[in-house]
Predict the structure.
Amino acid sequence: MLKTISKSVTAAMLAVTFAMPLPASAISLDRIQTTSDVTLVAQQRKEVPEKFKRKVVRLTTDEKPGTIIIDTNNKFLYYVEGNNRATRYGVGVGREGFGWSGVVKIGRKAEWPEWRPPAEMRRREAAKGHILPVVQEGGPDNPLGARAMYLYKGGRDTIFRIHGTNQPWTIGLNMSSGCIRMMNKDVEHLYDRAAIGSKVIVIGPGGRQGDVSFDDKGVDILRTIFGG
């Protein structure tokens, strides 16, 4: 019983993506090579900064409604609604050397996804005294949080995800191995709106997203007050 609790607590302290991509200079979404790693959070922030909390904003863009734009430099994810409207969410992104860019699609979705740390990760962490499970069932202590949207390119899994987190203090930081983290309440909100097949534009190192036109003009005051 104590061993089971210890494993669960250890896993809950690890901010994980299934696999860690090579540094941005080596990334090609047409052919991704991977290794594995975990990110240990050295210091916990008690609160997510106000600017990273979900807001309705005025967004000028040529992208169609339903498109997701992720600005990894500013740590924002936009769900485009049309008519110069969008919902903006704060996100956590890849740490230095593990950022990426590109145009992908949501290939599949999962509620309370299970976590399967790669064998290489388990071996490395075992050498450090951290025993990771082969499979951790979905739940509040799972590093992938409440929901996951799996990003595909050309019909293949890129290993990148938009997912929740049990470490909300990492929102607004460069802490992950390339996946996009959201607060659980936000990833649930996005999950209910974003369909499989939705276009996802990730703006980051390498400029592989191509030309993307969008302009965040700030909080939509009228919608914030009156809704709609």
Remarks:
- Helices lie at 2-12, 119-127, 184-191, 221-226.
- The CA atoms of residues 26 and 89 lie 28 Å apart.
